Structure formats: C-alpha cells, structure tokens
Amino acid sequence: GENVEQHPSTLSVQEGDSAVIKCTYSDSASNYFPWYKQELGKGPQLIIDIRSNVGEKKDQRIAVTLNKTAKHFSLHITETQPEDSAVYFCAAILVSGGYQKVTFGTGTKLQVIP
Amino acid sequence: SAVISQKPSRDICQRGTSLTIQCQVDSQVTMMFWYRQQPGQSLTLIATANQGSEATYESGFVIDKFPISRPNLTFSTLTVSNMSPEDSSIYLCSVLGLAGNEQFFGPGTRLTVL
Predict the structure, then answer these.
(1) For residue A76, is pLDDT > 70?
(2) Residue A97 sits at the chain B interface (C-beta within 8 Å)
C-alpha cells in the first residue's frame, strides 16, 4: 500500500520568512496531492492541491511543487504570518474511476514567531 | 466547497457507554467518510459510509465497534460503542466535493472517555 512520509514534524520560522514542508510517497500510481491546514480545535482545511500532470501550482503566498520521478512534493509558504501557525498535512491519493484511496502524511506543526 | 457540521462538538463519556456522532452536509454528496485523529497524530480512515448499503470498513475497524448509518445523501452517523479510554480521539466526518477529488472535513468531535 501507499506510504507517505512528511518532514519536518515541527518547524519554527520568523514572521516574514519562508517555510517549506516536504512529503515523499511510495506508490507511483498516486495522482492527486492535496495539502491541508488544521488549526487548533478545527477540522483540516484544504489549502492547495496538485495533480500528477502538473509540476507546480501557486495561490498567492502558497505554492506546491511535484516531482513525479522522485515521488516527492512540497508545500512552500512565503512571507509567513502568525496566522499561518497550524498543523499541515499532505496526502497522496490514488483516483481511479469512482475509487479513491487516501493516505495522509504524519503532519508538520508550523509555528510562525512574530 | 461543502459545508459540514458535526454534533456534538465534544463530549466526555464513561467507559462502557456508547456515543453517536452526527454529520450533516449542506448539499448532496456521493462519498462520505469517517476518520479518527488521535491526539497529535495524523488522520486514520475508519470507514466509507455508503448510502443505502453497509459501510466499508478499513483494516482494524469493525462494524460492531463503529456502526455507521447513511440514510440519505446529506447525513451520516458514527457510533462509538462500548467505549474505553483508548477511544479518546477526534472523530471527523469528510466528504468528496463535486469535482470528485477534493475532500472536505467537518469540524470534528472531540471525545474523551474516562
């Protein structure tokens, strides 16, 4: 089955600096890679995603890159703000017809220091 | 994106009792899921709630312990039966969006078993 590793488990950055979180996956058939932000006491919120036919996607201060050959994808947050502090989860998903198999990473606790 | 609500938001229960968690979605969705998130951990899929048929359980989860109902396309319940302290977790309802890949989560139910 799919195995997703996520690093680092914790990350502290100064406000305004960039943060990078990396995930690797094992199943080359996985073709959809979302990132979730989970604030304390709330459910995970989808913040950005990328499909296997795309190498990079950007949405304002957030970007995701995918290297299919190496089977890794990364979340980049630029100009970090205190409200970016949360736990971030990556996921690798195999989508085939009406079937979807989701494997989550172990999470990264990001702290942005004002 | 779908708007998902869960009841209760949190509960403290005694060992040996059962708790039913409700999930309501503001639109009809084909796929609904139930996840467990233990403190400081990632998300683990319990089961897929199928409308009109029995839920599909992941390895390690059984119907007797986690019975699920899905009477229509907007509502599902998860029961945690004969609870023990090891069942203390956040339980999350999730649905697939209209595009078919994006997965959205409810706010979660924080369960503490004494």
Answers:
(1) yes
(2) no
Q: Is A26 on the interface with B (CB under 8 A)?
A: no
B44-86 confidence digits (pLDDT tens): 999 999 888 889 999 999 999 999 999 999 999 999 999 999 9
Beta-bridge partner residues of B13: B113
Cβ-based neighbours of B13, under 8 Å, separated by 6 or more: B19, B83, B111, B112, B113, B114
Q: B96 — contact with chain A (CB < 8 Å)?
A: yes
CB contact under 8 A, A100 and B96: yes
Best CA proximity match to B76, nearest among B38, B18, B35, B16: B35
For residue A101, the chain B residue with the least C-alpha distance is B45
Over 80: is that where the pLDDT of B109 sits? yes
- DSSP for residue B100: S
Judge whether residue B100 has pLDDT over 70: no
CA-nearest of B77, B79, B78, B70 to B30 is B70
> Looking at residue A38, what is its pLDDT?
96
> If DSSP codes are grouped into helix, strand and coil, which group holds residue B87?
helix
CA distance A98 to B98: 13
